[in-house]
Amino acid sequence: MTGGPAFELRGLTKRFGSVTAVDGVSVEVARGEVVALLGPNGAGKSTTVDMLLGLTKPDAGAVTVEGGSPREAVDRGLVGAMMQNGALLGDVTVGEIVDLVVSTHANPLPASEVIARAGLENLVKRRCGKLSGGERQRVRFALALAGDPKLLVLDEPTAAMDVDGRRAFWAAIREYAAGGRTVLFATHYLAEAEDYADRVVLMRHGVVVADGPVAEVRAAVSGRVLKAAVPGATETDLARLAGVTSVQLRAGRAELACADSDAAVRALLAEFPQAADIEITALGLEEAFLALTAEEAAA
C-alpha cells in the first residue's frame, strides 16, 4: 500500500477498572514522519503504544497501521518495536540473536546490514549477558530493524547510552527515516525530541494536550527566558521583578521565565545595574512541556 497514513488512532480509549488511562486519543501520522510522544509518568504513553502495537485492545476507538489492523501489520513485518526492557537471551552471542530474529521474517534485511546499522560490528561474538546497558539498547534496536519495517516504534531508545552512543543512534534513525520510513519514539530526554523529531505529541492524563511541529508546540506557550549574570542577587530578589514568573539561580547566573521580558529586563537593570551578559530567548521545548502539563494538571 502506497497511500494513506503510516498509522491512525481514532478515539482510542482504555480503562483499567475506574482509571481511564487513555481518553479519546486521535492522532494521524504520515509516512516518513519522525514523531516524539511525550508526557509525564502516568500520561498514557505506554498504553497508547501498546494499543498501536496490538498488545492491548482498546475499550473504544480504532487503530489502523499501514492500512490494516496492528496484528496484520506486525504479521507482515511492517512494524518493528524497541521496548526499553525487552529481554535478551543471555547465553547467545549478538551475532546469533540477530541471525535468529532475521530468520523469522519473510523479507528481512541481511543480518550484516542490521549489525552495521546498529553499530554492533565489534560486539558480534559477545554474549548478550555480558553487554552493558547501552550495548543492550543497540541490540534491541538491531532486532527492531531486522524485518525492514515501515514503522519503527521506540520506547526510551537511548536509555543507558552514553553521549557518543546517542549521537550514533540518532544518526542511524535519520538514515532509516530518510528512506520514507516512519518513526514514533517515547522519551524523557526532551532535548532529543527538540533536536530529532519533526513533530511532538504531548499527553497528560490520557489526552493529547499538544500536537504539532516543535516550533508550534513552543509557540503555544507565551513568554521568554531571560538569562544574565547577576552578582549578589537572591532568588527571592529576582522573583519580585516585574514580568518574572519563575527563577533559577546557579553560581550567580540567573535564568528567569518571563511573561513580559521587556518589563523584566527593565526591572532587572533598575534593581541590579551590575547585571551583565544578558540574553533573551524563546521558551524551549522543556519549558513548553512543563507549562502545558502544569496547565492541564490545574484544569
Automatic annotation (TrEMBL):
The keyword Glycoprotein does not apply. Pfam families: ABC_tran (PF00005). Keywords: Antibiotic resistance, ATP-binding, Nucleotide-binding, Transport. It is found in: Cell membrane. GO terms for molecular function: ATP binding; ATP hydrolysis activity. It comes from the Bacteria. Residues 7-230 form the ABC transporter domain. GO terms for cellular component: plasma membrane. The keyword Nucleotide-binding applies. InterPro entries: AAA+_ATPase, ABC_transporter-like_ATP-bd, ABC_transporter-like_CS, ABC_transporter_ATP-binding, P-loop_NTPase. This is ABC-2 type transport system ATP-binding protein. It comes from Amycolatopsis pretoriensis.
